Amino acid sequence: DTEVTQTPKHLVMGMTNKKSLKCEQHMGHRAMYWYKQKAKKPPELMFVYSYEKLSINESVPSRFSPECPNSSLLNLHLHALQPEDSALYLCASSQDLGSGASGNTIYFGEGSWLTVV
Amino acid sequence: LAKTTQPISMDSYEGQEVNITCSHNNIATNDYITWYQQFPSQGPRFIIQGYKTKVTNEVASLFIPADRKSSTLSLPRVSLSDTAVYYCLVGGSGGYNKLIFGAGTRLAVHP
């Protein structure tokens, strides 16, 4: 079972709404990630946080705003989204932001299904 | 970043061994190879990780040749519940754990 918890599991929002996705992990990991996954496509990296600071932004539109209040929590604030933003949003964490060379495994949550209407 | 290439889909039958090969020709010296399994509507689940030779755990084995330009995930005696998408990833460069997913392999296990 995953130790990365995401809420809500499902979210429906209008294009003018403001909502947030939340993610929590209690594994003591210092790196956290947001991925976006469309149906029948692989997950796409959006943001990476390391020690509560944004390290990587994969040119994500500003209508997606990440926040890392502390080392256990990661939020994704949503505003003025478009229907094409409907997808599964995955949160993940790893021990730190080392390269794959260190065997730094990334663990994923179950995701939050977002539908923009 | 090392790009990975896998077969788009595979079919197997219950009780058979399944081998999924991933090509990663430009893998960096320090990169590890990690495999994930994903069921519909769920997050990817870590299966196995290795650097060279062979790694085995309670779920699968991972074979990595000496040149490390490919790797093979071996699932022994698959069951219907192993029907899923399997992703092969290699570590990112520049000191960042920037794992990028390839297209993955859709494995269908039939009765």
Keywords:
heterodimer, A: about 120 residues, four-stranded antiparallel beta sheet, about 55% strand, B: about 110 residues, mainly beta, 9 strands
Summarize the SSE layout with pairings.
The complex is a heterodimer of chains A (117) and B (111).
Chain A: E1 4-7, E2 10-13, E3 18-25, E4 31-37, E5 44-50, E6 53-57, E7 64-70, E8 73-79, E9 87-94, E10 107-108, E11 112-116
Parallel strand pairs in A: 2-11
Antiparallel strand pairs in A: 1-3, 3-8, 4-5, 4-9, 5-6, 7-8, 9-10, 9-11
Chain B: E1 9-13, E2 18-23, E3 33-38, E4 45-50, E5 53-56, E6 61-64, E7 70-75, E8 84-90, E9 105-110
Parallel strand pairs in B: 1-9
Antiparallel strand pairs in B: 2-7, 3-4, 3-8, 5-6, 6-7, 8-9
Compose a concise summary of this entry.
The complex is a heterodimer of chains A (117) and B (111). By secondary structure, chain A is mainly beta.
Strands of chain A, count:
11
Overall average pLDDT of chain A: 91
> What Rg of chain A is obtained from the alpha carbons, in whole angstroms?
14 Å
* Overall 3D shape of chain B: globular
What does this protein structure show overall?
The complex is a heterodimer of chains A (117) and B (111). In chain A, the strands form two sheets. In chain A, strands 2, 4, 5, 6, 9, 10 and 11 form a seven-stranded mixed beta sheet that branches. Helices cover 0% and strands 55% of the residues of chain A. Chain A has strands spanning 4-7, 10-13, 18-25, 31-37, 44-50, 53-57, 64-70, 73-79, 87-94, 107-108, 112-116. The termini of chain A are far apart. Chain A has 117 residues and is mostly beta strands. The mean pLDDT of chain A is 91. Chain B is an all-beta fold and 111 residues long. Helices cover 0% and strands 45% of the residues of chain B. Chain B is built from no helices and nine strands. Chain B has strands at residues 9-13, 18-23, 33-38, 45-50, 53-56, 61-64, 70-75, 84-90, 105-110. In chain B, the strands form two sheets. Chain B has a five-stranded mixed beta sheet with strand order 1-9-8-3-4, with no helix packed on it. In chain B, a hairpin with a 4-residue loop joins strand 5 and strand 6 (61-64). Chain B is globular and about 40 Å long. Chain B starts with 8 loop residues before the first strand and ends with a strand. The mean pLDDT of chain B is 90. The A-B interface holds A 2, 4, 31, 42-45, 48, 55-56, 88, 90, 92, 94, 96-111, 113 and B 28-32, 34, 36, 41-46, 49, 51, 87, 89-104.
